[in-house]
Structures are given as C-alpha cells and as structure tokens.
C-alpha cells in the first residue's frame, strides 16, 4: 500500500448499494468471478515478498506470471531491466524487471496508463495470521491472504476489467506500468520513469494508480496527499556522557535544551507555533467544504479502533481536514537519550530530537526548512545556553494535489455512479505518496488514485483481505472507467 492509513469505518452496508445495472459487460464480469477468484488464489500463492532476499526468485516469478497473463489477454509486454541490488554485505540480487504493457495504440483514442505493484509485504502465520498468508481463503465474503488487497487483488481487478472491456471493444489505449519493489521503496523506478518519458510515456494522457483503499465501503477517489518535512535537532553539551551525581547542578544539559525546543513547536491543541508556517496553506473554499459533507466516516469507529477518546477535532469534517489538508507537526523520538527500563542516572552528552511536519499545498519544503530553522535558532538564542544546537531537514517530500476537473476524474466519478449508484467520496491521503508527485513532476501528466481496496483490508498487517464485493464490483469500476474516459 502506498500509505499506511487504514481506519476501520464499516457502516455503509453493502446491501444499501443498489445492484449494478443490467449491462453485458457487467454480466460478463459476474459470470467469470470464480475464475477471477481462482487467479487471485494462484497469484497469492507466489510469495513475492520483496523485502526477503531468499524470496527474490518468487518476485521474479511473479513478474513473469503477470507478463504471461497480459500476453494471454492480448497485450504486448516489454520487461524493463533494472539491474542488480547491492546489499551492504556485498551480496547482489537481481532487481525484478518492470512490466511495460500496452493494449492498443490507436492515435485517435486517449491513452491511460495504470501503475501498480506485484510484490508484497512480509507475512508469516506466526505473526498472528488466522490462516496461511499465502493460501487464499474465502470466509464470510472476504478473501484472506497476503497481497489480496495490496496490490495483487487491485491489479487483477484491473486486468480482468481490461480483458472484459476488450470483448466489447476497448474505447481507450491502455498501458500498464507494474513494478516488483514497491514495498521496499521502488528501487530504480524514478530513473526508469525519467528514461521512458519520451518513449513509453510519450503518448500517455492520464496516469492512474491502482494501489489505494477507500475511506469506507463507499468507493473513493484519491486526489491529494500531504508531503513530509522531517527534521533533526541536535544538541551537544559535554564531550562524553556524564553522571548526574557528579555533574548534576554543574552543567547546562543538552537534554533539557532539546526538551525545551521540542516543547515550543506546537501547543496542546496541535497548533504549530512556528511563525509563518500557515501562510501558504491553500485557503478552504465552499466548493472544497462541500466535498466533506457526504463522506462516510464515523468518529465512533475511529475511537474504537484507536482507543483514543478525545480527538483534537469533534466533527468528521474538521478531523478529516486536519488529516488531509492542514499541516500537522509530530514529535517522533530522541536519539541518544536513555530509553531503557530502570533508573539510569546519565546526563546524555549529545541528543537528537526528531520531528516532522506533514505539509500541504501550497507549502514549499525549502520555505518550511527556513521557517523551522529560524524559529528554533531564535528560541535557542533566547534560552542563552552555551551548548551547540543544529537543525537539519532530512526529508523534504512535496505534497500532491490533483486538478479534479481533469477528464480522468470525471470519468471515474461517472463510473462510480454507474456501478454503485452513489457519488464517489473524493478523498486525500494524510501520508505521502511519492509516486504520484513523481509521475506528475517528471511526465507533466495528471495523476489519479483509483483503488478498490476496502478501508479495513489491513494491507500491511495480519489477516490482509479484500472483500469479494470490492474485488468483483471493483473490476466493474475499472471496466466502466475505461468506457467513460473517451467521452470527456
Ligand atoms: C501498434 O500496434 C500494432 C499491433 O499490436 C503493431 O503491429 C504496431 O507496430 C504498433 N504501432 C506502434 C507505433 O507501436
Ligand atoms: C483543471 O483542468 C481543467 C480541465 O482540463 C482545466 O480547464 C483547468 O484550467 C485546470 N485548472 C488548473 C488550475 O490547472
Ligand atoms: Zn501497495
């Protein structure tokens, strides 16, 4: 999964949704659902865990199986080799090639390129799975197994949609860009996108990422993500750690300075106290406010899921806005501090405080970096400590916000309406989605996240699943999307 937000919010019963309309394309998909589930079972059985060097051959095998299926349903495939991955031990492993596939190249039709991945997170029965993670099990309308939701199930829903839509005449050109190293950071992918800019991607009009969950059981389309500026504050006092019995009361302590600095970053209500930090935040307008009204999201579920009784915001709208479209500051840890159990009486010589700011459009990481440094330096100067203090920004990932008036969004909204007879939830990710920003920056094309994962699929956790409903109706969603796209 591209981001780790998974909040349980199950209130929209499937029964509330109208059945899909009579349509030969939908009937074709319904008639083949057992075959689709069997294929997912076969693919889940391939342990394509990209983090485990001993399973690299399984990842390579998975890419090959995917390629074979694309060829079988009439696509053309190029395997882009990425070379080798070198471990610090000196050991080398082949990187799985990236699948560049194409269905149709009619210059009179729009071309949509879908991105997804075939590698999975690690999974062992001993981690607390109720079933063998690599043996797909169907239970109570859900399909359990590693990769069922993230991302094999979503990619298969797409492939089955392409295969079905082809039977009725594919109204768009479809390209696929499928990798095998997503779960460990997409090694080599950014360079490949750059390298293929003027070839594979040159005729692509729209990019759709198929690796994302809905907010509820109501279909959601993701149009934005927050960025992340991650900071270290390093405070250094003595040359070595000291003992509080021998030195307590005699030295300016690095830890006290750091705790003070971490303490002035935000107030108790989460308001960031750094001057100017909110200046560039895109103002909220009525049109955007309206998008939040019909979102299906229940604070009670969130409370139950997290065990948090009192959140910073009391309404669904405020809470989601603060998760998606306002910046936030979180303190993550202190390196060099005593953190074990018991009562060590050390005065740490040097400590590094870690915090990050989730930033939003139109904040700029380099401006944020300066605001943070200036503020912390002035606060430290006020304190008049003789210790050394240094602020550095170690990650500066940009936020992403799409233009929802673009054709791919209109087509996706129409497809949701057609398959589910509801208006799509227009949602954002609170976390960062580097690939979206990367596609947009390098290719200059609009990006949309249209996934079919459920809100409680546990993509990186134990007992990962996708519901049969999401899997099969999601196939119809992708097929309808392909049908709608040329009309905008
Ligand atoms: C278009 O597709 C056809 C059939 O797959 C192929 O023969 C032809 O070479 C392709 N043309 C281009 C420009 O890729
Ligand atoms: C958003 O997309 C629409 C449709 O393509 C276009 O007319 C509009 O100018 C775009 N808006 C921005 C701010 O780029
Ligand atoms: Zn994923």
UniProtKB/TrEMBL annotation:
GO annotations of cellular component type: cytosol
Site positions per UniProt: Important for catalytic activity: 243
Recorded superkingdom: Eukaryota
Keywords: Hydrolase, Manganese, Metal-binding, Metalloprotease, Phosphoprotein, Protease, Signal
Signal peptide as annotated in the record: 1-17
Gene3D superfamilies per the UniProt record, alphabetical: 3.30.70.360, Zn peptidases
Residues the entry annotates as binding Mn(2+) 1: 150, 183, 460
Residues given in the record as Mn(2+) 2 binding sites: 117, 150, 211
Catalytic site positions: 119, 182
GO terms, biological process: proteolysis
Domain Peptidase M20 dimerisation residue range list: 224-382
Alphabetized InterPro entries for the sequence: CNDP/DUG1, Cyt/Met_Dipeptidase, Peptidase_M20, Peptidase_M20_dimer
Record text on cofactor binding: Binds 2 manganese ions per subunit.
GO molecular function, one term: metallodipeptidase activity
Entry keyword annotation includes Glycoprotein: no
Co-factor(s): Mn(2+)
Pfam families per UniProt: M20_dimer (PF07687), Peptidase_M20 (PF01546)
The family this protein is said to belong to: Belongs to the peptidase M20A family.
Protein name: Peptidase M20 dimerisation domain-containing protein
Lineage of producing organism: Eukaryota, Metazoa, Chordata, Craniata, Vertebrata
């Amino acid at each position: 999964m591209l981001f780790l937000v998974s909040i349980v919010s199950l209130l929209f019963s499937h029964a509330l949704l109208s059945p899909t309309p009579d349509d030969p394309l939908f009937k074709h998909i319904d008639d083949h659902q057992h075959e689709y589930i069997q294929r997912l079972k076969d693919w889940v059985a391939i342990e394509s865990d990209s983090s485990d060097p001993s399973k690299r051959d399984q990842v390579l095998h998975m890419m090959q199986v995917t390629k074979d299926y694309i060829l079988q349903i009439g696509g053309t495939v190029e395997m882009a080799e990425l070379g080798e991955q070198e471990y610090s031990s000196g050991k080398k492993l082949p990187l799985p090639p990236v699948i560049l596939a194409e269905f149709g190249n009619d210059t009179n039709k729009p071309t949509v390129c879908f991105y997804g991945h075939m590698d999975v997170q690690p999974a062992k029965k001993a981690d607390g799975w109720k079933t063998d993670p690599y043996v797909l099990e169907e239970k109570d309308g859900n399909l359990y197994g590693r990769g069922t939701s993230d991302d094999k199930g979503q990619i298969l829903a797409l492939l089955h949609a392409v295969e079905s839509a082809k039977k009725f005449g594919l109204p768009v050109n479809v390209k696929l860009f499928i990798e095998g190293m997503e779960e460990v950071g997409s090694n080599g992918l950014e360079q490949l996108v750059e390298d293929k800019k003027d070839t594979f991607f040159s005729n692509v009009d729209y990019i759709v990422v198929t690796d994302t969950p809905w907010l509820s059981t109501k279909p959601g389309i993701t149009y934005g993500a927050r960025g992340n500026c991650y900071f270290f504050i390093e405070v250094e006092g003595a040359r070595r750690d000291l003992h509080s019995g021998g030195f307590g009361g005699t030295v300016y302590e690095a830890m006290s300075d750091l705790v003070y600095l971490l303490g002035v970053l935000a107030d108790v209500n989460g308001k960031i106290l750094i001057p100017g930090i909110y200046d560039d935040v895109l103002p909220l307008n009525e049109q955007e406010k309206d998008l939040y009204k019909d979102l299906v999201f229940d604070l009670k579920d969130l409370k139950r899921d997290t065990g948090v009784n009192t959140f910073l915001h009391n309404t669904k709208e405020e809470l989601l806005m603060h998760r998606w479209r306002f910046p936030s500051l979180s303190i993550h840890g202190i390196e060099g501090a005593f953190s074990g159990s018991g009562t060590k009486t050390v005065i740490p010589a040097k400590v590094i405080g870690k915090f990050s700011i989730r930033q939003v459009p139109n904040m700029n990481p380099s401006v944020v970096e300066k605001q943070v440094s200036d503020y912390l330096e002035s606060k430290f100067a006020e304190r008049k400590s003789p210790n050394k203090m240094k602020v550095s920004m170690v990650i500066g990932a940009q936020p992403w916000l799409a233009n929802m008036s673009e054709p791919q969004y209109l087509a996706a909204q129409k497809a949701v309406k057609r398959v589910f007879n509801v208006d799509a939830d227009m949602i954002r990710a609170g976390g960062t989605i580097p690939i979206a920003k990367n596609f947009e920056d390098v290719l200059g094309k609009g990006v949309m996240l249209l996934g079919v994962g459920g809100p409680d699929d546990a993509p990186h956790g134990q007992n990962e699943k996708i519901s049969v409903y999401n899997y099969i109706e999601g196939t119809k969603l992708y097929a309808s999307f392909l049908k709608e796209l040329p009309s905008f």
